[in-house]
Write a structure and sequence with these properties.
The longest helix has about 30 residues, at about 100-130. The protein has helices spanning about 40-55, 60-70, 80-95, 100-130, 140-165, 175-185, 195-220, 230-260, 260-265, 275-290, 295-325. The protein is globular and about 55 Å long. The relative contact order is 0.18. The protein is mainly α. It comes from Cyclopterus lumpus. Its main location: mitochondrion.
Length: about 325
């Protein structure tokens, strides 16, 4: 998951007041340098739209990733590639099956990403003022991304649990409400946060690497911090791919905690529900060795690259667009 309005942009101080003829046009204005009138509501609105689009556009690939991370999948749910998986799911389970769980994802993504981006921007600017006197600081970017992740995951974790259970092959739930009620009745409310510590352990380094990579790419591709869609897309894709690859082992553990994969747990004689990151790591290793920690890596990277590129480009556009509605 992965996005910041200014992650692509450091605050650029203008030492000279340009003449009227030298002023940038609306199409290439220094929107990143105009924070005085960019409100928290602007960041939250841009973040919410970006988050919803990020999760919806590539959602079918996310469904495949969840299934490919199963440690002991049903013979009918063993896939060689993302394309083959999607093709078989559509042929055998229906064209809308890869979209199952999308509703709860959208409900969680909007508020989660709104908080995420608003927090990132505020913390980033505050830390940059302290660490580098208002200049761009990679340490500030990484710390801000980590702090924002704590808020994001607190909102998104319950949605992730429901989403992944509905994505599984032969999922027993009739729909969203049935899934929510069954989990609450049989496992308690704590089930929605069983993977929270693992999610944070995964997402804090994910977002730190993500934001630092995005900023580094922007320094090379967009040094003047202009609104430049191509650079936002390329930087976002690179950031998403690198972050996803590095954190795949933790994502496998998160999936096992969220889905409580029955066949796998029964084969290990685990009664009740699996909990705890250390227990999950041991279980994954016993079931599949080191290779198990990289199950679904291909699908995860394929999902994250365009998703993060979409999120960044949409977020930067909305930030630019909303900023231009209130010129200084």
């Amino acid at each position: 998951m992965e996005l910041s309005s200014d992650p692509a942009a450091a605050t650029v101080e203008m030492s000279q007041v340009p003449s009227k003829d030298d002023e940038p046009s609306d199409s290439d204005g220094h929107y990143e340098s105009l924070p005085p009138h960019v409100s928290v509501a602007t960041h939250m609105t841009a973040g919410a739209v970006a988050g919803i689009l990020e999760h919806t556009v590539m959602y079918p690939v996310d469904s495949v990733k969840t299934r490919m991370q199963c440690l002991q999948p049903d013979p009918n749910a063993q896939y060689r590639s993302v394309y083959q998986a999607l093709k078989r799911i559509i042929q055998t389970e229906g064209i809308f099956r890869p979209l199952r769980g999308l509703n709860i994802t959208m409900m969680g993504a909007g508020p989660a990403h709104a908080l995420y981006f608003a927090c990132y921007e505020r913390v980033k600017h505050s830390l940059s003022d302290v660490i580098q006197s208002g200049g761009n600081s990679h340490l500030a970017n990484g710390l801000a991304g980590s702090v924002a992740t704590v808020l994001h995951d607190a909102v998104m974790n319950p949605a992730e649990v429901v989403k992944q259970r509905m994505q599984m092959y032969n999922s027993p739930y009739r729909g969203l409400l049935d899934c929510l009620q069954t989990i609450t009745r049989t496992e308690g409310l704590g089930a929605f946060y069983r993977s929270y510590s693992t999610q944070l352990t995964m997402n804090i380094p994910f977002q730190a690497v993500h934001f630092i990579t995005y900023e580094l790419m922007q320094e090379q591709l967009n040094p003047h911090r202009l609104y430049h869609p191509g650079s936002h897309i390329m930087s976002g894709a690179a950031a998403g791919a690198i972050s996803a690859a590095i954190t795949t082992p933790l994502d496998v553990c998160k999936t096992l905690l969220n889905t409580q994969e029955n066949v796998a747990l029964n084969s290990m004689n685990i009664s009740g529900h699996l909990s705890g990151m250390a227990n999950t790591f041991r279980t994954v290793y016993r079931l599949g060795g080191l290779a198990a920690f990289f199950k679904g890596a291909q699908a995860r990277i394929i999902y994250q690259m365009p998703s993060t590129a979409i999120a960044w480009s949409v977020y930067e556009f909305f930030k630019y667009f909303l900023t231009k509605q209130h010129p200084i």
